Amino acid sequence: MIDKNATAREWVRALEREGFRPRKSKGSHHLYQHLDGRRVLIVYHRLGETFGPKTIKQLLLTTRWAEADLKRLDLIP
Length: 77
Known about the structure:
Helix content: 25-40%
Radius of gyration: 12 Å
CATH architecture: 2-Layer Sandwich
CATH class: Alpha Beta
Shape: globular
Structural class: alpha+beta
């Protein structure tokens, strides 16, 4: 089960540890890109915000992370 209380800061740190780099941002929209071409758009106003279940599901689809990846990145216990 994914920690729904994970903040935007924790998701950004996980993305950066996994090799995603910030490409551009405009306002609350932050685009991260991996060297293999994967792109992830995260929308947040403050790094302390949490995401809803639909947003988390979309993040998992675009990053192609499995349960083992989430455990390694400390997003789930």
